[in-house]
């Protein structure tokens, strides 16, 4: 969401994110803290005017404060700034250490392989019905978990789940996603491994995406598109998936080597949500810059092949008709 006029002088701050109810967060322009989620994103806040001239910014980390409609700043002392930056650095180091330990544990246990190896024919059939043949179930090490235990609010639930490992280039494991077959709510199907950051799902986990790239929403769509467009039709495309229509900038930065990115998100990503000034697809394209090409599909990418009998050529027509604006 775009900043309102009274906050325009803060538009260039890094890691700027809309938080709802007229609030944004970003990195503090004084001490640098508070920008990213792992760096306590609630510590630097930008507040829009609420019926008056009270638009302001405030950093909880170094106590920098400013009214947006004048140049009067309340700046912390150099000692306070240095202390705040030290706190910020300690957060970063602690988070990086924790993530390294969790990734190391993931590599050592490789528990997703057990879910893959234990699949019965009826579990493989679920993946085939989704458009993923057996050989690609093996290639991507997809699996099935009989009982996933989770929580929504204060209520616990269990559900069978299809398991999806995520890899960094070089097939380095980074996360495992669970697609619930009996979710607690219809639109609440997906869970990631607790304590690990979501990332891109790479259809080719052995190398980073490069050249022309197709970006879709969700692993299943990317898997089907890779099977139909690359494996069967031999199209020269990298295929990746974001876990939702609101990926982080860090995820999108994983496409830095791609020359063109075809943004083929679900159709609802091209509709403005309530109180939003731009579509989800446009926000993704903004992060990609002039490499973005918007593909307006008539249905979800995997459904076009699985349910509507699309061929690679028919899908390719939509790619060729992609636009530079959302």
- What is the helix fraction of residues, given as a range? 25-40%
Give the SSE string: EEEEEEHHHHEEEEEEHEHEHEHH
Please state the average pLDDT score.
88
Sum up the overall morphology in one term.
globular
Strand content: 15-25%
C-alpha termini separation: 15 Å
Number of strands: 15
Strand order of the largest sheet: 1-2-3-4-5-6
Runs in which pLDDT lies below 50 for 5 or more consecutive residues are none
Q: What is Rg?
A: 22 Å
Number of helices: 9
Major sheet description: 6 strands, antiparallel
Task: Give the oligomer, counting copies of the same chain as homo and different chains as hetero.
Answer: single chain
Q: Which class best fits the helix and strand makeup?
A: alpha+beta
Describe the structure.
By secondary structure, the chain is an alpha+beta fold. The chain has helices spanning 78-109, 111-117, 121-129, 134-139, 219-232, 249-252, 280-288, 301-306, 312-320, and strands at 17-20, 23-25, 44-47, 56-59, 65-67, 73-74, 143-152, 155-168, 172-180, 190-192, 201-202, 211-217, 238-242, 258-263, 292-294. Helix content is 29%, strand content 24%. The strands form three sheets. The chain has a six-stranded antiparallel sheet with strand order 1-2-3-4-5-6, with no helix packed on it. It has a five-stranded mixed sheet with strand order 11-13-12-14-15, with helices on both faces. The longest helix is centred in the first third of the chain and has 32 residues, at 78-109.
